[in-house]
């Protein structure tokens, strides 16, 4: 610990090294003693380090000061921006050891691994059906609650799944984003494109 503090303090001018060493030591002592002197004024959550408390505060203020120069998407934390930039660079550093499929985010790799392990950790408390993804469980729960949180902005029709709402919107916009690679015919829904494609493969 002393060696780490000493190396860090050398980066500062001589007159600031003592203050820096004291701050580093105090921070280290707080973590070891499990003290959390930095308290969020909004929700009361406590932190051992001030930097973690400042980062947490952004969840209340919705401040997103880190902006992607490529697409303009904003993030509350620099680390999230760094991960996001990997999408534009097509970086996929997280590789499945079973099938070698690569992913941009580690969370996507963890979800993918369950296709190999058949792990289903998310269980419905109503009927007991288990799912490999949290999102799939949330979607399933709406079959019990009949909740329909997605609304069509044109006619007000409600849907339990966002995908169904997006598909419905195309009945208003007449958008047809799915095109046949063989003849160029376009469709509003991918299932219609798949059905059409069979006319070429017969």
UniProtKB/TrEMBL annotation:
BP term (GO), one: regulation of DNA-templated transcription
Molecular function terms from GO: sequence-specific double-stranded DNA binding; zinc ion binding
SMART domains: ZnF_C2H2
One Pfam family from the record: zf-met
Organism of provenance: Araneus ventricosus
Entries under PROSITE patterns matching the protein: ZINC_FINGER_C2H2_1, ZINC_FINGER_C2H2_2
Cellular localisation: Nucleus
Residues of the signal peptide: none
Gene3D superfamilies: Classic Zinc Finger (3.30.160.60)
Sequence intervals crossing the membrane: none
Protein known as: Zinc finger protein 569
């Amino acid at each position: 610990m002393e060696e780490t503090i000493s190396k860090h303090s050398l980066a500062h001018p001589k007159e600031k090294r003592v203050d820096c060493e004291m701050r580093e030591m105090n921070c280290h002592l707080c973590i070891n003693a499990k003290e959390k002197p930095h308290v969020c004024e909004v929700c009361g959550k406590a932190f051992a380090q001030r930097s973690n408390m400042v980062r947490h505060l952004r969840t209340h203020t919705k401040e997103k000061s880190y902006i992607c120069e490529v697409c303009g998407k904003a993030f509350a934390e620099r680390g999230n921006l760094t991960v996001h930039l990997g999408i534009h660079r097509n970086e996929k550093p997280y590789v499945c050891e079973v099938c070698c499929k690569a992913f941009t985010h580690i969370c996507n790799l963890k979800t993918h691994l369950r296709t190999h392990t058949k792990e289903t950790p998310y269980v419905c408390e109503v009927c007991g059906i288990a799912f490999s993804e949290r999102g799939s469980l949330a979607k399933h729960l709406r079959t019990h609650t009949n909740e329909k949180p997605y609304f069509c902005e044109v006619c007000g029709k409600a849907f339990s799944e966002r995908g169904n709402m997006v598909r419905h919107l195309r009945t208003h916009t007449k958008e047809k984003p799915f095109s046949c690679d063989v003849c160029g015919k376009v469709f509003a829904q991918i299932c219609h494109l798949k059905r059409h494609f069979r006319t070429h493969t017969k």
